Amino acid sequence: MEDQAVSCYRHPDRETGIRCTRCERPICPECMVSASVGFQCPECVGQAHRMTPQPRTVAGGRVSHDPFLITKLLIGINLAVFLWVQAAGDKVVTDLGLYAQCGTDFTGHQVCIGVANGEWYRVLTSAFLHQQLYHIGFNMLSLWWIGAPLERLLGRTRYLALYLVSALGGSALVLLVAPNTLTLGASGAIFGLFGATAVFMRRMRYDMRPILVLLALNIVFSFTWANVSWQGHMGGLAAGTLTAVGLAYAPAHRRALVQWGTCAAVLVLSLVLTGVAVAQVTS
Fold first, then answer.
1. Catalytic residue among 135, 166, 229, 233
2. Which position among 126, 166, 171, 187 bears the catalytic label?
3. Is 233 a catalytic residue?
4. Taking every annotated instance into account, which residue ranges of this chain make up the domain Peptidase S54 rhomboid (predicted)?
């Protein structure tokens, strides 16, 4: 026996003989959503979707359709800034690069420039600056090889937080040890990803020898090659490793709190060290 035609509950001006298989409310063709058996209304479909557990990454992040989106965006931003530097010249580097200096002018008054002049944005903008093709080429290849798998492991937001905190950690150590040297590049953030990769490989009991050998070679490179900021590398490595420990070993019942608390703690520590460095330069 067929249902008598009634009005769609969402569109009263439309008659229909179809009902939702879950709530039995009448629905018109526009409101019908195909189900395994019959059709369902939009409300029932939405409720079922909310009740279905969403897939999560190892670190508790959401699984995305494009697990490498943030890595692609970071590479794109770095490449765009590189092209800007090539087009506009060294002024972009001096305006956005990392340094902090103070001195006296001909009148005997103190004059400060860079981060020492309150330009704190440099601690982050410097991490997206590159001048030489080999510099950005090596860094972006490393970011893709190390960052893309790590983004899939962490999820977008945790991965982005790790990257930015690592960059700030690298900038903090640069300002503490070599504030007068103009420093730029994504290496500090990438070293943070190296450290995080080692932490998660340890957490998941993978063979750590490949990442440890790669990390050791990069550390040796940092201290032996000329014009390489070992301070930025080691600062980023320390910040990334500390952050990753919180991300990887957070207890399940308080995972988000511990993870974001760790990110915030390392961020605050980096900013405090930056403040100490600026105070030393300006004193």
1. 233
2. 187
3. yes
4. 118-247
CA atoms within 13 A on the CB side of 198: 19
3-state secondary structure of 58: coil
The whole-angstrom separation of Cα 244 and Cα 177 is 24
Domain boundaries along the sequence of the chain: 6-51, 70-282
- Nearest C-alpha neighbor of 141 from the set 69, 133, 96, 229: 133
| Of 124, 183, 176, the residue nearest 281 (C-alpha) | 176
Along the 283 residues of the chain, how does pLDDT read in single tens digits? 344 568 888 888 888 888 888 888 888 888 888 877 778 888 888 777 666 566 667 676 777 788 899 999 999 999 999 999 999 988 999 999 999 999 887 787 889 999 999 999 999 999 999 999 999 999 999 999 999 999 999 999 999 999 999 999 999 999 999 999 999 999 999 999 999 999 999 998 899 899 999 999 999 999 998 889 999 999 999 999 999 999 999 998 898 999 999 999 999 999 999 999 999 999 8
CA distance 167 to 252: 28
- Known catalytic residue: 187? yes
Enter the CATH code of domain 70-282.
Answer: 1.20.1540.10
Per the structure block, which two tokens stand in for 29? 């063709």
What is the distance between the alpha carbons of residues 18 and 69, in angstroms, rounded to a whole number?
A: 42
d(CA 134, CA 123): 22
CA–CA separation, 93 and 182 (whole Å): 9
What gap in Å lies between CA 181 and CA 94, rounded to an integer? 11
